[in-house]
Design a protein that fits this description.
The chain is mainly β. The protein is built from one helix and eight strands, in the order αββββββββ. The strands form two sheets. A four-stranded antiparallel sheet has the order 1-8-3-6, with no helix packed on it. The chain has a four-stranded antiparallel sheet with strand order 2-7-4-5, with no helix packed on it.
Length: 140
């Protein structure tokens, strides 16, 4: 076998192995938020039909609510928004639960956006010790 053919074969095999070992993006994820302002956007995930966003142990500089809205991330077009949920239970160590059950069928990219903190679109900042996204309840 010629040297150039051998190098091509080795390089091609390495690329296939690297691709096979690449991490697979999962729809369910957990994270945290530190000192976010209104208009903060989460990372994206793929889903259809249903998504749930849980906030546990929220803190702000005085206010005790935050409005969270689900968005469909659409390339080269304006994003589509879904219901706004007001979270209050996460303040004082509890968990707030927002469920969006009206999402269209077919895999799409979603994210949530902090719309207001304490009823305001500017000023207060929000920290959340645990943020969880669960997409499994109603998917078929």
């Amino acid at each position: 076998m010629k040297r150039s053919a051998r190098i091509s074969m080795v390089t091609g095999t390495a690329a296939v192995i690297t691709l096979a070992l690449a991490p697979i993006a999962e729809a369910n994820w957990s994270s945290s938020i530190t000192a976010a302002s209104a208009s903060f956007e989460s990372r994206r995930w793929s889903d259809e039909l249903y998504s749930q966003v849980l906030f546990t142990n929220c803190t702000t500089d005085g206010s005790k609510s935050t409005d969270v809205q689900m968005w469909n991330d659409i390339s080269l077009q304006p994003d589509e928004s879904y219901d706004n949920k007001t979270y209050t239970a996460c303040f004082g160590g509890g968990t707030s639960n927002g469920e969006w059950t009206d999402l269209p069928s077919g895999k799409r990219d979603y994210y949530f956006k902090i719309m207001k903190i304490g009823g305001s679109t500017f000023g207060p900042q929000l920290s959340v010790k645990s943020v969880s996204v669960d997409t499994t309840k109603a998917d078929g």
